[in-house]
Amino acid sequence: MKILLTNEAGCFHPGIVALAKELCKDHRVCIVAPLTKQVGAGHSLTVDQRPLHAQQWFVLDSVKMWSVDGTPCDCVALALDKLLLDKPDLIISGIDFANNHGNMIYTSGVVSAAVEGAIQGIKSLALSAVIANEKKERCYRRVAKFVRRKLTYLATKIPDYGVLNVNFPEKVKPRLVMPAPLTDGILDNEYEIEVNPFGSTFAWMKNPLREFGLDAYDQKGDLYWLKQGYITLTPLKLDLLKGEALETLQKAGIKL
């Protein structure tokens, strides 16, 4: 297969490097990923007059690599329109170094890059894992090897006009795989506020909340099964329409 790899952590991040080294043994692999970390970029695209700078790197054998000084979605859109000679058969976003479960998918650059691929008609996977040391390439190899072995299977589970979101627990056990819905919950991010001597207010996200309340485990969603040591498979659709609400509006009519 012809595979495009991207991520939100940067083109030199050990997660995407480990995945590229493994997949290039069986497939044609190209990396187009952000030059710098874009965590939390969501589905943002650079649409103003600032040009995107794309640069090719020759650091991996058998793998073409491009960096883009933009968001993960910029990388996918630019790759499909200009950088790739051939349309890829598959887009894989990741490996992210923390799970993207529940409502966290909406701010995840990893999931959003896969969604951008799906919008453009390419089968897309988003891969995230609990990694002991995000800076060590060897910590991603077990996930990368699993993906290589099971890639054909995973590709068949990608929904039409959608994305398959795959999350790995810290210890990967190939036989523990669970299709799971998204965990519903409210994310409560914590900010640190400071005022400088000139009266200007500055804010830093102090502790991005990566978990939900205890009641979230009762839902038996992706978070629950990850905590049980399962690899979770969550198919995501691009149509965000709430059908029941639309029917209610249509029956009630619009009166403003």
Question: What does the model show?
Answer:
With 256 residues, the chain is an alpha/beta fold. The chain has a single domain (2-181, 213-240), classed as 3-Layer(aba) Sandwich (Stationary-phase Survival Protein Sure Homolog, Chain: A). Helices cover 25% and strands 26% of the residues. It is built from six helices and eleven strands. A hairpin with a 5-residue loop joins strand 9 (190-195) and strand 10 (201-207). It is globular and about 60 Å long.
Helix and strand topology:
Blueprint: E1 2-6, H1 14-23, E2 28-34, E3 54-57, E4 63-68, H2 72-83, E5 90-96, H3 109-119, E6 123-129, H4 141-156, E7 162-168, E8 177-179, E9 190-195, E10 201-207, H5 222-227, E11 231-237, H6 243-252
Parallel strand pairs: 1-2, 1-5, 2-4, 5-6, 6-7, 8-11
Antiparallel strand pairs: 3-4, 7-11, 9-10
Helix pairs in contact: 1-4, 2-3
Give a quick precis of the structure:
With 256 residues, the protein is of the alpha/beta class. The protein has 6 helices and 11 strands.
Name the descriptors.
26% strand, globular, alpha/beta, two-stranded antiparallel ribbon, 256 residues, 25% helix, 11 strands, 9-stranded mixed β-sheet, Stationary-phase Survival Protein Sure Homolog, Chain: A, single chain
SS summary, helix count: 6
- Element string (H = helix, E = strand): EHEEEHEHEHEEEEHEH
Total E-strand runs: 11
> In CATH terms, what is the fold-level topology?
Stationary-phase Survival Protein Sure Homolog, Chain: A
| Order of strands, widest sheet | 3-4-2-1-5-6-7-11-8
Helix content: 25-40%
Mean pLDDT: 92
What is the first-to-last residue Cα distance? 53 Å
